Amino acid sequence: MNNGLDIVSVIFLGIAVVIFLYLRSILGSRTGNEQQPFDPYSNDNSDNMPNRDQAGGRSNDHDNVINMPDQPGVQGTNPPIPEINMDDQIAKYAKEGSELSEGLNQIADRDQSFEPEQFMTGAERAYEMIIEAFAQGDTRLLKRLLAKDVYAGFSQAIDERKEKGQTMTTQFVGFDKVTMLEADIEDKQAEITVKFKSSLIRYLTQEDGTVSEGDEKDIEKITDIWTFSRPVSGRDPNWKLVSTKSEV
Q1: Could you tell me if residue 97 is inside a domain?
Q2: 66 belongs to a structural domain
Q3: How many domains does the chain have?
Q4: Which stretch of 47-56, 64-73, 165-174 has the lowest confidence by average pLDDT?
Q5: Measured between alpha carbons, how far is 31 from 217 in angstroms, rounded to an integer?
Q6: What is the CATH number of the domain that holds 190?
Q7: Which of 50, 69, 101, 212 is the most exposed place for a label (fewest CB within 10 A)?
Q8: CB 141 within 8 A of CB 133
Q9: pTM, rounded to two decimals
Q10: How far apart are CA 103 and CA 88, in angstroms?
């Protein structure tokens, strides 16, 4: 009996050794240096992120980092948004005590959303959009950006151009100088006048492709004086172009 049990034990032990060696050959052995499984919800995954260089791709330590904004009510590392200093903003465009400075202060007092810097940035964008829309004959966009009487003049010029079979091409090169000239409130309407000195390439071509006016390579120096307006109290926050003139 004892010999029989010893023989059975030896047989099972041999089977266990064979199975162990087989599994080891398939799964390998742990050395203590294996990477931990990547957890996408963990904050500490920097050591376990796959390295794209090894896969033939390009990567560095910050390729997959996206800084999320702080949630409301949660203290974070983002600095607080600084309060707007209206005096400093106005001083960038107008001398203290000047009519322009007084006009900007009046608008700021009546219109709590008004910011001179934001206005000037928007005015530059509007200028570029309007001259390009005029060249392309985009009356839909012009109607949104222009007052009715100004739109009527632009629209008429576009129609005349079409009747003559002409196509206008305008390439905006850049601003040479943008200056705020006047600011005032009239009949509950804030009005600001801006002088734009810009560089453009613009020319007219006929249906056969020949240039009838202007030059494809000539950069023109243009000076436009535009006045923008919007209600100081109302739901419409958009400024509209209410007056244009060119300075030679």
Answers
A1: yes
A2: no
A3: 1
A4: 64-73
A5: 70
A6: 3.10.450.240
A7: 69
A8: yes
A9: 0.66
A10: 15
